[in-house]
Amino acid sequence: MPDLKSLLKTTPKYVSLLVKNGIVTVQDFLQYFPRAYEDRSTIRNLDELIFNEKGVTATKGKVVSKTIFQRGGRKIYTIKFVDAAGMTGVISLFNSGYMAARLIEGHRYVIVGKPTLRSGKMTFSHPDIVETEAPEEEIIGDEDDKPYCLASSSASPAPLDCSPFLKGANLPTYNIGRIYPIYPELNGISPGWFAKKTWDLIVHTGQYFHEHLPEEFLKQFDLLGVVETIKNMHYPESTEMQKKAIQRIFFDRLLRVQLHALMNKAAYQANYTASGIMQQDWEVVKNIIATLPFTLTNAQKKVIKHIIDNMHDIKPMLRLLQGDVGSGKTVVAAISAYYSFKIFQGQSVFLAPLEVLANQHYRTLAKLLLPLGLRVELLTGSLTKGEKDKIKSDLKQGKVHVLVGTHAILQEDVDFQNLQFVVIDEQHKFGVRQRAFFKKFASPHILQMSATPIPRSMALAFFGEFDISIIDELPVGRKPIQTKMVSEKEYIKIKPRILEKINQGQKVFVVTPLIDESEKMEELKAATVEFEEIQALFPELNGRIGLLHGRMKSSEKDKIMQDFKDGHLNVLVSTTVIEVGVDIPEATIMIIKNSERFGLSQLHQLRGRIGRSDMQSYCFLETKNKSGESAKRLRAMEESNDGFKLAELDLQTRGAGEILGTMQSGESDIPLHILSDLKFLEKVQ
Length: 685
What we know:
Elements: H1 4-8, H2 12-20, H3 26-30, E1 36-39, H4 49-52, E2 57-71, E3 74-83, E4 88-94, H5 97-102, E5 108-113, E6 116-118, E7 121-125, E8 128-131, E9 139-140, E10 148-149, E11 165-166, E12 169-170, E13 179-182, H6 191-201, H7 205-208, H8 215-220, H9 226-234, H10 239-269, H11 282-289, H12 298-311, E14 318-323, H13 329-344, E15 347-351, H14 355-369, E16 376-379, H15 385-396, E17 402-405, E18 419-424, H16 432-436, E19 445-450, H17 456-462, E20 467-471, E21 482-486, H18 488-493, H19 495-503, E22 507-511, H20 520-537, E23 545-548, H21 554-566, E24 571-574, E25 587-592, H22 600-607, E26 618-622, H23 629-639, H24 643-654, H25 656-660, H26 672-675, H27 678-684
Parallel strand pairs: 4-7, 14-19, 14-20, 15-17, 15-18, 16-17, 18-19, 21-26, 22-24, 22-25, 23-24, 25-26
Antiparallel strand pairs: 1-13, 2-3, 2-5, 3-4, 5-8, 6-7, 9-10, 11-12
């Protein structure tokens, strides 16, 4: 078969640029899809464009004059044309003598571009232009203007949205008279170059793409075939066909995600040896629940049943537990670890992304499980070698029943006597490889916990290997956080309330945004400036205001958080590094600066750092603009504390990437209308 260079009829330079960007074969080239489309299929008169047209459009007219003048060394060509209704338009060209020379007075052209109204005339700068010519018998109207073409099946004139004629070829051509693709620019290769070369190449689609789905499958799910899909991704026959092509592309992507997930699940479960203990013992659960100083919610009880059912199954558990911050996920996991120990003599691991969070889990679990006879140990990078070696030795001998830690657990010399249950907190902070570490211990049950609410449609799309449980109730006695949008001036006015709360022993978070991941110095500057402003605003708190940002070492961040937790600091100025769930019950006020820069899911995650006790908590969303689109999102925060409701809204307004954040899905560019279509996603699954 011909190679890419000969098929494209291009130079080695262009081929080299394509190869550098991973486009090596014809298949690669034809899977470099447009980022957007322009509807150039309808030709309109100029008077239709003045008030109605905002984007690229097409019109038709006869050139009546050409002028040229120079400005600052640049030649500016002004070509006037008259449309079918007698209205004058302008084509403006800069240093484009070749194109200007091709436009001949008295000849008619189709002009495609984004018009602007200048000096009362619709003006097209550097549009696409094609000369037209039509057989006399098919034209009606004035001889000079010829405003209409006549469809063969119609006895009345139709507006100029039917195909006019090119000299030597019928419209539509590749860039006029159709839906036109707009490609991402690639290392200096223009979108127009891709459009022309793809048009030349799509006739070969059938030679390079073969259907991998059965015919009956395509009919059942109303999917385009792969060849029609590729053609309509580049040059759609209609808007409807464009949508169907996009649907097929993302059906295939999601199908790959699902198949990969199922393969991962099968590979993990293949290494499992069932305990053989089929009888559940709910007295064990009742015994530990009786020791709790609070009442479990119905949602917590339901999840505990899910987990215990899985523990007695013939396959290891892979379960994702979702629950808003403060909903009691850790208690559910602790009860499950106790059950695993009592019934299966199993050891458990609690894996956390940060040392301060691991310390928090350790204290919670030790308080709950030590009185019941379980030994709980903490393994982190800050321990001495001797301390680590002692814990590892006891762990291997089965003397440690619950191990809590950070990445320090994921070392080759960490071994277990009978690892049965693994809890991974803030699961999106850990990759597949890190989770796979535990597979060598006969595939223990895995419970992954997330405080990031994920809409059901996204959960179907991205977490296919997991069964999903949700805790959708907050513990009894928790008060909803009161959230209010404030201007900069209003923010200053809340100082007395903040001081009053601090004097009562309560604590305050002040959060500044990270504008861009690449702007680490900007992050430091923003946080430092805010820190200085807070110090100036609260001179009474000298030495009791802390600063936390992403450029600090992990040990520094952990110390600051611990000082804040222990009461050595009253106010913590921070970037978004506080998102992960450290529990500070005394924190009751949060001020989020420039809150319009955050998505709803991230704002909700941040807000979850407060409201962790029975005290009333307050979140102030400081913004420069209390109107407009961003204000609508902030008002949603004022009106709701429901993380799942806010996540659904975030999905509609900002896309999957905002919710997924650093979750390693690899497919967060899937369009909203696909991710929002539950029936479609269920078909894929």
